[in-house]
Design goal:
Layout lengths: L7 H10 L3 H8 L3 H11 L19 H4 E3 L5 E3 H10 L7 H9 L8 H13 L4 H8 L3 H14 L1
Length: about 150
Amino acid sequence: MGAARASREDIERLLYAGHSDLAIHEATGAARDTVARHRKRLGLPGYLTNADSPTCRHGHPFPENRGFDSNGWLYCLACSRNRSTLYVPVQPDEMAIERAVAGDAPERLTPRERAAAVRILDRRGLSAAEIAGRVRCHPRNVYYLRSTFRRAA
């Protein structure tokens, strides 16, 4: 005789309680894609629900960092405090930009470096295909960057 199937009500109750898909799968025996389907149908985001985990996804311990927002969603206080300091604007690498302008672009340019190189090459009057070849991107990316330059001007 096989294991009893988890009822829809059991899965929904556990989802509303904030348990992860894996914990519901282990507790009820329901397939993980079934649990995910129920979560999606209920409109619950998976990344906010980790009530059964001792830490948040960044490793902060939950008992002392547990918080609830106005909708009742569980979140990590330490992560929300660090949210404003997580993004630090980085200065583009001038050597990478110069290499891209010369046609010897590095393997990977950051989006900011790519935009700077496209701007310089666009001022020199090169076509989108020529710029894309030098910067190692698609010509559509060049068209998009040109339009953002014009909108900003």
